[in-house]
Amino acid sequence: MGKKLQFYGLDITKFICALLVITIHTAPFIEVAPNVNFYLVQVTARIAVPFFFLASGFLFFMKLNQEGTWKDEENLDALKRYLIRIGILYLCWSAIYFLFTFASWLKDGFQWVMLARYVRDFIFTGSCYHLWFLPSLIVGIVIAYFLYFKGSHETALISVAVLYILGMLMNVYGSLLQQIPIVSSVYKAYTAVFVTSRNGLFFAPLFLLMGAYFATTKSILTKRDAIIGLLISLLLLGLEAAMLRNFHYMNDLTSMYLFLIPFEFFLFSWVVQLQPKEHKIYRFLRKSSLLIYVSHILFVMILTPLWKLLFHTAIGNLPLYLLTTICSLLFAGIFIYAADTKLKWLKVFY
């Protein structure tokens, strides 16, 4: 049996992306350097989740029998196992964060509309705001799977690109859409139920299928070409974000940029070719990136009131980022060690 392929470049990049996600939820430089914070949070950090989708698609489609069809038992079993694993992961972390949600219900006075809103969010936007990645991955991988096997790869990519553009219009230009009579009615009806287009229908499939492309096609780009394309697309991505801010289309949920598409393509083209020397640290990076992603809000929720209780003042954004990052790293290390030794059942959490 051949040696299992290792993609240490992916492990490193996913770990960095997990740390970038923390910046989105803590805005570390908002108090001292707002412009720096803007480009960190609304440009650099926004590459993280699309990369997670791309890497997920890459690793998933590598396991499939490319000669088979969507009905192939081996492929369907792989899809079912994947959906079950992500579903269990989502349920486990939803249960943990529900404790905080339930506590807020008791504090604010429970109303049935709160439960209805929670059920809606659990299905469509995530039981906790950062967990939207998991249900989106579930929906997105199903769409990507069937599109991948049902027609040509080119048709599939065009289809999901159209979905992404539609989602981008709602995510970025929603205020403009609301000024168009007929479109406004459709937009309001959609957001009343689904809240956002940053989900498994509009956002995830494009990057998942891009991952499938890399899993089944030898890259035609050299590292040098990939880096050049990466730098150019990063510049364009920054200009796009600056333009959106200048014309007042930027908000906290703005994340579906047009130039994210070429950026992620060139980034992955480069990363997948990286071959650092084997080291045990990559195993930790591989496992901890998801744990950091799903757990960091836990520490934000704990540290914010704890700091105020101890020091009688609100915690600053930079200390919040640093402490959240440190706690998340320590938690991931302890958790992985426990799961690898005596508490094997903990692996369902990552």
From TrEMBL:
Q: How does it sit in the membrane?
A: Multi-pass membrane protein
Spell out where the chain crosses the membrane. Answer: 12-30, 36-61, 82-106, 129-149, 156-177, 189-214, 226-244, 256-276, 288-307, 319-339
Q: Which GO terms describe its biological process?
A: enterobacterial common antigen biosynthetic process
The Acyltransferase domain, residue ranges: 8-335
What are the GO cellular component annotations? plasma membrane
Gene Ontology molecular-function annotations? O-acetyltransferase activity
Keywords attached to this Swiss-Prot or TrEMBL record, sorted alphabetically, are: Acyltransferase, Cell membrane, Membrane, Transferase, Transmembrane, Transmembrane helix
Q: Name the predominant localization.
A: membrane
InterPro entries the UniProt entry points to:
Acyl_transf_3_dom
Q: Which Pfam families match?
A: Acyl_transf_3 (PF01757)
Q: Where in the cell is it found?
A: Cell membrane
State the source organism's domain of life. Answer: Bacteria
For the keyword Transmembrane, the answer is yes
The similarity annotation says:
Belongs to the acyltransferase 3 family.
Name of the featured protein: Acyltransferase family protein
